[in-house]
Amino acid sequence: MNEQNYEQEISIGKMLYRVFRDWRKVFVIALVIGVLVGLGNFAIKRIKIADPEYITEEEQNFERELAAFEAQGETLQREIANLEDTRAEQQEYNENSILMKINPFREFNASLQLYVSTDYQINPELTYQNIDLSNRILRSYVTYMVNGDMYQYILDHLATKIELRYLREILSISADYDTYMITMSVRHVDEASCREILNYAIEGIQTKKDEIVTSIGEHRLETINQSVYENVNLDLDELQKANQQYVLDLGINLQEKNEDYIEWKETPEPQKSFTIGRIIKNSIKMMIFGFIIGAVLAAVFIAFRYIMSDKLQDAKELKNRFGLRVIAELPKVHKKRVWVGFDRLFAHWGGLQTKESDYEQLAKVAACTVKAELDSIKEDKEPCKLAFTGNITVGELDAMLQNMKWESDYSAKSVPNILIDPSAVSKVTASDYVILVEKQEESTYSKIEKELEVLKAWKKKVLGVIVVGVDAVP
Q: Model's pTM, two decimal places?
């Protein structure tokens, strides 16, 4: 008997079975808690709605919640519309922009420089010098080129029509007022397109020349450094990829916003919480919530009690703790119960094999087992006296012995608990062997240990233990 040094192993599976086995208790406790919570919530809300100040405050809260709810829907609609417009614009740009059509690994570029020259000369002999009009003329040409007139001239003459914004992306203009030069550069999908745009640009400038000559003065326009070449433009490649990815990102954002809008539409509008109907619905929800909480608390309590209890939970523990041989495990027979199917289901989940209907048969097997052991150790033919005792009542012992069907050459007596009944002393000392009978979840390990100590002191051999009230399949 090493009870003080023994450490019981806790089985999660057995603990869960104990919880499910007592599902009726869990249900009743949860139902009581749920009903109390629901009724309490109803009573509190019913008292509150009798207060006019509470009603006024709730009316204001309801109006604010409703306004916030509707504002959320309107915001989502605006965001969806903005995303749709932005995506449509970006898709249109990607389809029509010249930059998006250019092969970045074979970009065609064309450029030229226009030089503005006049007959102006500085005369050192004169104190007053003529005005140099070159800068004014250059600025006039630059103004014509950048204010849109030149772009419009090109657009009016191009064979393939494009929009102004796409032309501005591919045609760039820069001026150097110190050297009186204008640089124009264009990039396109092919060489012919580049030359076409530059040619029409020069034509447009030439049409402007007469007006500038009349307004400012005589001058000459000379075209220099004109060239067409291919180029690898990795920056353009990154730009094209970024624009395409932007369309994809807009599509994803639009889908998310649509899902949010659908979820918003499925969300019920805020309701007044101070009507009787709302109070009843809320109380029902609280009742369900209380039922769930009650079930969890009850299950936790049962599991905690199983872990901390000193009561006999498993017959195998008697062998592990005290070295006792388990002669038999007799099932507990219940009366008829409703929804017994759940009990059978949980019993199978718990791994139980014994059925309650096997009680009488198992009792007979226990009697035969004891008889066979006695025959093997008995040296004479004198009737053998057996004492059945434990932490159960004499009535339960008598009922068990009656089912065991003992033969006449053995004397089996029911003996009261040797720890509390003085009459048990003489009966045990007069017997040859003792068989302990303990009841699952009623007998405690500490009392069983004391019984074994007493029997050892009386020098009585314990053949084994019979555990009654064991869980079984209904």
A: 0.56
Question: Residue 402 class from Cβ within 10 Å (0-12 exposed, 13-18 middle, 19+ buried)?
Answer: exposed
Q: Reduce the DSSP state of residue 229 to 3 states and report it.
A: strand
Q: Single out the residue of 357, 379, 376, 371 nearest to residue 435, CA to CA.
A: 371
Residue pair 391/398 in contact (Cβ under 8 Å)? The answer is no
Q: pLDDT (tens digit, 9 = 90+) per residue, 57-88? A: 878 888 888 899 899 999 999 999 999 999 99
Beta bridge partners of 115: 181, 222
Arithmetic mean of pLDDT, 168-175: 93
Distances in Å between the Cα of 70 and the Cα atoms of 59, 265, 278 are: 17, 10, 21
Look up residue 408 and give its two tokens.
Answer: 């006449």
| Angle, CA of 278, 282 and 285, to the nearest 5° | 145
Q: What is the DSSP letter of 10?
A: P
Distances (CA, A) of 335 to 221, 332, 438: 117, 10, 21
Q: Do β-strands 461-470 and 433-439 pair in parallel, antiparallel, or remain unpaired?
A: parallel
What is the Cα 80 distance to its own chain's centre? 27
Domains and CATH numbers, the chain: 5-49+274-308 (no CATH), 107-231 (3.30.70.1130), 312-470 (3.40.50.300)
Report, as an integer, the average pLDDT of 153-164: 91
Q: What is the pLDDT of residues 409-421, one digit of tens each?
A: 678 888 899 989 8
Alpha-carbon distances, residue 95 vs 100, 101, 166, 197 (angstroms): 7, 8, 11, 20
Please provide the DSSP assignment of 279-330 as one string. HHHHHHHHHHHHHHHHHHHHHHHHHHHHHH--B---THHHHHHH---EEEEE
**Which residues on neighbouring strands pair with residue 182, listed in sequence order?**
114, 175
What's the CA angle centered on 354, arms 19 and 390, to 5 degrees? Answer: 80
Distance in angstroms (rounded) separating the CA atoms of residues 312 and 212: 115
Calculate mean pLDDT across residues 434-455: 90
Q: Say whether pLDDT at 162 is over 70.
A: yes
- The owner of tokens 């309490």 is 40
Compute the chain's Rg from CA coordinates: 51
pLDDT of residue 77: 94
pLDDT > 60? residue 124:
no
pLDDT band at 315 (very low <50, low <70, confident <90, very high): confident
